[in-house]
Design brief:
single chain, mainly alpha, two-stranded antiparallel sheet, disordered C terminus
Length: 719
Amino acid sequence: MANTAHLVRRQSSRDLNPQRSLDRLEMKELRGRLVVENGNNSYNYGATNAAFDDTSPNTKIGKVTSTSKLAGSTEGKAMFKPEGGEEERESWDSKLTFLLATIGYAVGLGNVWRFPYLAQKNGGGAFLIPYFIMLCIEGIPIFYLELAIGQRLRKGAIGVWNQVSPRLGGIGIASAVVSFNVALYYNTIIAWCLFYFVQSFQSQLPWAECPKKYFGNGSYILEPECVTSTPTQYFWYRTTLMVSEDINSPTAFNWKIGIALVIAWILVYMCMIKGIASSGKVVYVTATFPYIVLIIFFFRGITLKGCTDGLRHLFTPKWHTLSDPVVWLEAGTQIFFSLGLAFGGLIAFSSYNPVNNNCSRDAIMVSLTNCFTSMFAGIVVFSVIGFKATMSYERCLDLRNATLAAWEEASTAAASAVSPLTSTAMSAAMPDLPECDLQKELDNSAAGTGLAFIIFTEAINQFPGAQFWSVLFFLMLFTLGIDSQFGTLEGVVTSIVDMKLFPNLRKEVLTGVLCLICCVISMSFAHGAGSYVFVLFDNFSGNFPLLIIAFFECIAVAYVYGLKRFADDIELMTGSRPHLYWLICWKYLSPLAMLCILVASIVQIVVDGSGYQAWVADKGVTERHEWPVWGLVLIAVLILVSVLWIPVVCVCRMFGIQVIEDSEKAWFPAADLREFHGIVPHEVTTAETLLFCIREDGSEGLCCPTGGPASSDEEEDDA
């Protein structure tokens, strides 16, 4: 095993053919945010930016060597400025732009829509326990890992994992396939937001009251399906989705959502081809506007009647849910969706950072910002859930009291008329009274994707100037979604360009063709059963594949690239060595946790089965249905079409078949960084030897010894 692992690691350093680096093809839509180093005297962000303050603890001040310079400093702090640099390498124009772009990439619809939905679905506050546990052992460590490996190897996802080992290049392809699958159904949410946004400009919101059903003689009644449910539910299920009774009955094509999907894909293409991201000012709007709207809704929400009941429901854990492995699966998956892990986007983003950027501080800052945003959005949503539940509960009590009052009045009138009915008979004639339970209303007040489209629309109906609030809310959802959507799809385009599948096709043409293909496929969501197909994609296209991809990312870094080698690289870039906790997570905790969740979830699905919630028009509620056989086949395809790339590329490489073209290594001034930070060779500690079996020569034990003594020196000055 030692020889095999050593050969795998060596192959990543030797077998790469000299050619133009794949990193020049990464993330072209960021050109406006990024600036090209032009070699003149004007400083840019990063290695050549005088405004970039290095705060590493081991910074040396005033020392200039023959290979590196310390640029002019502010307040006595030295600036890292290597004499050589990477040719044609783009970089962020400021640290703030990178942070806002990363937060904007991570903070999306999942924070406002998915997190509150999962919290409600999995027992309210009980979901917060596995959520924060997964954040500590999976979320932040893998976020840190992706930022660090991207900044060190300075390539996109495919290029990074192909350089770690050509046999691991399938990890990057798997990330691209997952991004494609997620982009398909994610744009459907944007289409729904567009539909609601347009409907919000009516003089009266169409979901404010039940529509009337007219007869030939001019008389009318309220729509029975709306009466049995609520106006917001009716507008969502019947008007917007035109939902069918089950997934096997697509009924008519939903032309309204079909048109909204076409418009959504056109907007995505315009964002990618014209480059909304090309203006540095846009990121300030897209990253801050959702917070402004959330703050406004927060102050409105805490003034609503019943908000305390909703918040109590959010923060009170139901301990029995912790034994459900699906809860842990969805908590771990939400971390990936929320932080944007395993999609490949973070690796590409960090590859444009300066080589001495403090990626560890960025990882913690962005991760916590993102998760507290989810919590803040959850508070806003659950305050509204409490309001809606309280209103439903009070309506139930009013109906119950009115029924009792009417029965008592009829009984009194009968008794005064000397009715032959006995007291027993009158008791038997008592009508059925509705069951009023506030806790039940809190549990059932939201279902599936309708949380944002039912709960918030219910709250908006109660606001003065409801049209303004509706426009504001759905504009927020639209900006959240569109910013993440074209970034996700750009990862797919970049992967196709990296693999040189169509070398003679211009990127803008390739992007247009891809958007057209996606638009056609996404029409499968624009019919009566489309919402059920959406649920299938939402549950399986990302959940399992993202966990598997992130698992292999940890294996690639900890067991192939080498944990000591990775820690040495981080020390070179940041000036400080990663804490022992991060090393334990990367090598043991993170991959073990993901593996346990996967196994337990598979067992749970095999034992209990899997299904979806179907709308029952006559009852005005949803009922659980099992997936049909073709649905189970589609689930298997969605999972395997992405993760199978990992073993396929590995096997092909073993037999000499080159799926991904190798590229030259990116520039990395290891000697300059070592001199700048004053780093001395790291002596292996007793804890590292006991925990990771790291030996004095740099090799590592536990199944796969890696990171030989010459591994760092071989790549000190790659150019």
